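Risk register update: the risk of archive-format incompatibility is retired. Evidence:
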Amino acid sequence: MKNKFKILALVLISILSVVSCKQQVLEETKEESAVSLEGYTELADQLSQIKKDIDQLKEENQSLSHQLVNLKETNSMLKEKIEKLIDYEPVIDDMENHFTYLDKKILRSMILVDKLPSVQKVLGRINVIRGGGQHQLIYVDPVEWLSDDEAVKAIQADKNVSKEEADGYMPNGFYIRDFGNENVAYIMSSECMVSVIDLNLYPYMEKWIGLGDLASEIEKQEAEEFKDIYNFYVIDGKVVLIEELYIP
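Archived output:
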């Protein structure tokens, strides 16, 4: 009988031991489940934040897309305006040339009008320019510009030809009478203005240059048979304005 109780006691102890182990395993499983659940919650929070970030990036991308569309439209408008400005560029250049031309005309007129009636006008070719500063001299070979009957008579006298033959010496309707290689000296004003013909500037054809440029141009013409003709405006013995004469 005692043996039965011992066996029963051993069985109970075994059962209690198994139950205790199961309970311990269950507790550990609960703890692991709690940890896993906490990790899942944290991961879910991270995923939620990532979704929010994605939504924000989508909004920013949409805003940038609108800005890009606006920039493309603005760029297109600017291109059209630039193309129009390019079309107007020759007109603008022409207007600038015209205003420069008028400014010089006005300044030239002011110089001459202020000194009327003491202005002396001389027509001729430039032989040479010498000196510099306040002592610069220009040596002029005077000529006459004649037309119509006056030109015919001058040709007859200079060339000893008939009236009919005289027409052959003035194909453009005028005659430039040269009195020989004279050399009349004039003092150059330090404020002298110089206007020359430039056919590339049509229709104005007038270009303003400095005295140094004029001297260089005269040196180039020394070896040429036909030299340019100029109007010289002289005030109180000084040349204040030089204009190249257009010869067709």
